[in-house]
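Figure caption, in words: inputs first, then the predicted bound structure.
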Amino acid sequence: MTTTFNVNKIRNDFPILKQQVNGCPLVYLDNGATSQKPQSVIDAIVNYYSTTNSNVHRGVHTMSQQATDGYEGARAKVRQFINASDDREIIFTRNTTEGINLVAHSYGRQNIGPGDDIIVSNMEHHSNIVPWQMLCEEKGANLRVVPIDDAGELLVDEYEKMLSSRTKLVSITHVSNALGTILPAAQIARMAHAHGAPILFDGAQAVPHMPVDVQELDCDFYVFSGHKLFGPTGIGILYGKAEYLEAMPPFLGGGEMIKSVTFEKTIYNDLPYKFEGGTPDIAGAIGLGAAIDYVNDLGFDQITAHEDELLRYGTDALSTIEGLKIIGTAEHKAGILSFVMDLAHPHDIGTILDEQGIAVRTGHHCAQPVMQRFQIPATARASLAFYNTKEDIDALVKGIDRVIEVFS
Amino acid sequence: MAGLSDLYQEILLEHNSKPRNFRAVDDANQTADGYNPLCGDQITLYLKVVEGVIDDVGFQGTGCAISRASASMMTQSIKGQSVEKAKEIFDAFHYMITEPGGELDLDTLGDLETLSGINEFPTRIKCAVLAWHTMNAALSGESKVTTE
Ligand SMILES: Cc1ncc(COP(=O)(O)O)c(C=O)c1O
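Bound structure (pyridoxal-5'-phosphate present):
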């Protein structure tokens, strides 16, 4: 059993949180962009390079075996973390973007043709729009966009109407990075399957905040980035059901992804290696494994409870500020407080907060269609992680007071 | 170290809340659009150039206080000037914003000098120069620029 949630103790595990920025203690509220790393993740990477560094799957020597064990051990941790049924269904990528592109390239080019539909939502990150646009352009297929309402909820009825026998893939975010909306993923998957279409979820903003069970969701593909899950940059995950991955052609050709090569015929490797051409980010995978251990030790029961309370506290606090409007007010939200102010442009808000050591993101958050939907050029976004505190929110509110002071 | 008050000078805030020449120029003969894709700033600049002189100038668009004030002050400083002079002002302004500690051409800059504090805020330089690059594009017959 996990012990009680002690946020100060947790913060001690994250060396970067002790920093001063612009002479003020760092208040890190940009976790949606990337999360900070606990010492155990940093140590795992340092330890790997200090003691084990070797290439995987190809040496007879001891260290190569240790590196392989570390790398494959991380794969098993990822499998457990999202409750996949088989390690072969876990593909290491660089990030979410690469996972989506892999599916677009390998699955999409083989299975999507002229007149077919690919369905996304109005609240996708650009990385879940552009690969499909490229595929549609190449194949003469259509990109269909499920609309959202003023709160940032997916219009499920509209989605239902959009589905048809032409639908060849549905690719939708699990949690919106710009609005924080948690989408009804299991329902979305069921509805896609009722029309024979496979479903991909972009889980980049979901896995840091909630338990994900790919079998329960019954999704066909699930992608996320290690760096948003307290792991290092450069490592990401594509989960795919084995039946799909088996049937898909490889993505990158080269070493590691083959069984044998002759100029007459090359035999591709088995899953998951078929999709892991070239030397992988071994240290990154091991670091991600350490991050998953860390999150598991805390437990999502406690993480979710703490973050929900913070989100409520922050929503209440920001709601009382005159001239400030929260963008994204869905009933089920995770970790995101996006807002605009009458007095100041988000970019100015960001600079004034930064002067007080408060890191938020400002801009369109790689989700320009969301900005267009709400007819705003940009938002300021505070995004939470389990190491944030009510004091961080208080600092944000005080920082916003300063914005008001400067601009009035 | 530069503080917020160096950035958000009174004159900048005043131009932000009441931008000058914030309008389309119906008989403009050189216009250009500028974008800063990072923060979503967008500006359309209208110039009416007659015999090498900027007879009228206006701008529209959305942006942060810095891009708006910079655009507003730019229109004031180039209105009625020759195209050549406007390019000199561009050079002086660009130098001021991108070369902290450099010697300023105060005669050419005039009021624009109050924006010099921006050069201590590297993340905001693109906001300050957006209107200026857009002017340069309009004067050289290009219709689109982005700063990133
Ligand atoms: C919902 C969502 N999808 C995709 C991405 C892209 O992630 P990455 O840049 O790690 O590929 C992000 C990151 O901002 C995101 O929030």
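The first helix of chain A runs from residue 7 to 12.
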